[in-house]
Structures are given as structure tokens and as C-alpha cells.
Design goal:
The complex is a heterodimer of chains A (224) and B (145). Chain A has nine helices and six strands. By secondary structure, chain A is α+β, with helices and mostly antiparallel strands. Chain A has a five-stranded mixed β-sheet with strand order 1-3-2-5-6, with helices on both faces. The longest helix of chain A is centred in the first third of the chain and has 23 residues. The relative contact order of chain A is 0.17. Chain B is mainly alpha-helical. Helices cover 76% and strands 4% of the residues of chain B. Chain B is elongated. In chain B, α3 packs antiparallel against α4. The chains are: A alpha+beta (224), B mainly alpha (145).
Amino acid sequence: MKRFLPFAIIALVLLGAILLGWMLIGSQGPGTAPKAPESSGPVVPPGAQPPHVRGDVNAPVTLEEYGDFQCPPCGLLYPELKKIESEYGSRLRVIFRERPLMPMHANALPAARAAEAAGLQGRFWEMHDKLYENQKAWSDLADARPVFTDYARSLGLDVDRFTRDLDGPAVETRIFLDGTRAHALGIEGTPTVYINNRPAPFPAFMTVEGLRPLINNALNGTGP
Amino acid sequence: MSADLRRRSVWPYALAAIVSLVGLGDSIYLTIEHITGQSVRCTVIAGCSEVLGSSYAVVAGIPLAAVGAAAYFGVFSLATLAAFGYRHAGTLLALLVVIMFLMTLWVLYLQAFVIHHFCQFCLLSALVTFVLTGLVVAQRRLRAA
């Protein structure tokens, strides 16, 4: 009996390891996390109002992204979203919500502030695009704010106002409100995407090819 | 070897088997993160996506974490067999732990000087390997005594 005992223990641990892996895969399946805003439980805050929207306000499909301007995968998603927006035209609108991952990305919060400060002058999306298109140029800087000010200047913004707004309460409140919504939804990673209020599976939404069926399902009313 | 000495030289094996379970659980978690694609996303857990999403996280198409899981399972099996007195299990265990120790040094170097980010789950794995190395050394010294 004692001869077989070590092998029985090893077999038991192997079984436990397989079970653990199976449980972990199950817990990370699409749709389990993050939550859907309409799911039962505490009411999900609306986030900053009005949200930053690109596309037709009456579009049947709404894609809501929670992004961090310094996050490389968010930078990879950016051109894919551009392509899908032009492909679906008036049938799709895109909302961007701030989810700067601090302290991991030291320049994420200043970048979010820069985008929101530009938004106060009606140029959020222009700054959003500039930040993602030049992500590598400012991500590792010790102080990225002068670069953001240059972007503001190149976009024709009132630079004095932009500089004041960077640390102003309006910008801070918007980022905070988006943060409360993201927190309530259990969003701990970026990018996170919702299509018609339903969480889109990661990493399927990272490419046009992956996004297309999700949006088509939403158009057909069968969910992402 | 006296019965007392044999008992004394067995405890490092028993402890190694228990400690390896921590490494096994950790590396299974990392493997699943890799397989489900979560490792390429930025998360609130600092540094992990940079490390796990890097090209160094895959060796010949196999996630490094999966190799780690296999290694920890190997350590558990060999330590259990050695604790039950199987003759060559102790030697094989020492050999496996030395390879894991060298791999851990390489992975730590990559995190510090190439990727410039540390993943706390990878650091936990490194700690487990260092403890295993210490236990193997302790067992060898006990046996030599």
C-alpha cells in the first residue's frame, strides 16, 4: 500500500491542477467580467455627462470604450476602431470613457487630463487621436505635459486656457465620474469595450475582423 | 544512514513538495491568462501585461508559464518520490531545480533590463524557485552530514 501512496498523491495533485486550470478558464470566459450596466445589482453611475461621442447620435449600435491613452493595446485598438467606424458609418457611434491605469502608466492621467481639457474647447476627439497616434513619443517621458501643450497648440486650442484646465476641477470631475462608472462595472483592464451595453469579449474586439460579427449581432438584436 | 538522520533528511523533500504547489498554482494561473488572451491587456496589476505580453513569454510556441507549470509539477512529483525513499528521485530533483534556478535568473534579468517591468506573479514564481533551491541545498548538506 505504501508503495503506491506517492503515486496516488501525485495523481491527486495532477487532477487538482487540471481542475484549477478548468475553473480559471471558466471564470475568465466572455461575459462574466466586466459586468453589463443593466445587470442586476447596484445602479451603475452614468459617468461623465455628456459623454464623448463620435458618430451618429441615433446610430442603432453604440460602442463604448474604456481606455488608457498610455496603454499599448489601447493604441493598437485605435486604428481598428477608426476602420470600423468608417465601415459602419451612421449605424455606429463610439463613446470614449477615461480609465487611466495609475500608477502603472505614469503619463496616463496627464494624457486623460489633456484630452478632457481639449474637450472643454470642443476638440476632445482631435486630442484623443493625437495622443494615440503619437503614443510612443510621450509614453516614457518624465514629464509629458509640454508635449501635450504642443499638441494643443497644433490643434489651434487656446493654450492658456488649456494649461489652466489641465489641473482644473471640470477636467478632474469628468475623469472621476468615468472612473466611478468603470469601478462599478468592475473594469480592471484596458481596453474594455461594450457594445450596446454588453461587454464585448477580449481579445475578439481588438481587430476589425473580430469587431464586425459583434456589431452585426448587435444590429440584428442578438447581442455582441 | 540512521533512522534519525533519514528522518532529518526527508523534511526538505516534504517541504519542497508543499512549496512547489504554490509555484504550480501560480504558473497555472499565468498559463490561463496567456491562453485566454488576458495577458496582452493592460490591467491594474502593474507590469504583468508588459511581461506576459512580451515575445519572451513564449518559447517555441509554448507559453513560458506552461513550461513553468510542468516544471513545478515535476518538482512536486520528484520531491514526493524522494520523501518516500525512491533512490534516484532526489538527484533528478536537484538537477531540475538547478535548471529552474538558472531559468529564473534569466527571466529576472529580462524583466529588469530588457522589458523594464516586473510582474508580481513572475516574482512569486522566482521566490518559490529560490526557496526550492535552498531546500535542495539543505537536503544535500544534511545528507553529507
